[in-house]
């Protein structure tokens, strides 16, 4: 199973970019999404942006991830 993480693009330098989620920044490759622009949301897998997504799709995925994290925390208590 593969898991993609949505990140907001905050810096672009050639074929690399910096993506941010909840204050955490990651360097990513953007070779597969040549039309990406600052402030776009991208789905990232294994360090590569694999598609540009809209804010609603990013938010939905992040909300699901947050619910999962909270559920795991409750189960570990």
Automatic annotation (TrEMBL):
Q: Which PROSITE patterns match?
A: HUPF_HYPC
Q: Which domain of life is it from?
A: Bacteria
Cross-referenced Pfam families: HupF_HypC
Which Gene3D superfamilies does the annotation name? 2.30.30.140
Secretion signal, residue range per the UniProt entry: none
Q: Return the PANTHER family for the record.
A: HYDROGENASE MATURATION FACTOR HYBG (PTHR35177)
Task: Name the protein family.
Answer: Belongs to the HupF/HypC family.
Q: What is this protein called?
A: Hydrogenase assembly protein HypC
Q: Which species does this protein come from?
A: Clostridium omnivorum
């Amino acid at each position: 199973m593969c898991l993609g993480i949505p990140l907001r693009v905050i810096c672009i330098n050639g074929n690399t970019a910096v993506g941010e989620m909840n204050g955490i920044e990651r360097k990513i490759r953007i070779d597969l999404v040549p039309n990406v622009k600052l402030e776009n949301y991208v789905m990232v897998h294994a360090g590569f942006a694999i598609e540009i997504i809209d804010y609603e799709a990013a938010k939905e995925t992040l909300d699901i991830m947050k619910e999962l994290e909270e559920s795991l925390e409750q189960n570990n208590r």
